[in-house]
Specification:
The protein has 198 residues and is an alpha/beta fold. It has a single domain, classed as Nucleotidyltransferase, domain 5 (2-Layer Sandwich). Helix content is 39%, strand content 16%. A five-stranded mixed β-sheet has the order 3-2-1-4-5. A hairpin with an 8-residue loop joins strand 1 and strand 2.
Length: 198
Amino acid sequence: MPLQERLRPGVLEVGVDEAGRGCLAGPVVAAAVILPEGFSDPDLNDSKKIPEKLRFELRSRILDQAIAWNIGIVSVSRIDSVNILNASLEAMHQALDLLPIKPEFILVDGNRFKPWKETEHLCVVKGDGKFASIAAASILAKTFRDDIMHTLHEQDPRYDWHRNKGYGTRSHVDAIFQHGQTPHHRKTFRVPAQLKLF
């Protein structure tokens, strides 16, 4: 099913999404994207359903065509301080705060959001597979976060962050038990619980 271009034609509508919420390491990153009326890209979809190479190609197209965009990054220490849900919402607000123009309506992926200024919003479960602006935000959030995790991998290659991006894969969990946690690991996330996945 093709993505819906927008919910309210004629309104300056922004899509918002985050990446990295379920990771054991690295920040949470959110993106806010305002697409122009008539925007269409047949490859655009939920970032989780798109191969990595195509995600980065789509990022270039989105950055080239978007009316406005920005990202918010919330650190591991902040995640541990306020919990991952609140950190994700803070990242979304950061991305909105940094937009060069103020949107008139916000489409948010998921079912939780804290009101931003006086701007009306709507939460859409699995919105990154329904609305173009949310899908675009999911692409930006995912690829910019992947860039961060690649950089962290170069600094400390023991955890294979360039492959697992901080998620609790078997190799990542094994590396934590072998080498311990780093300052980039979320200390409030229970690593042993991840082993139930295997």
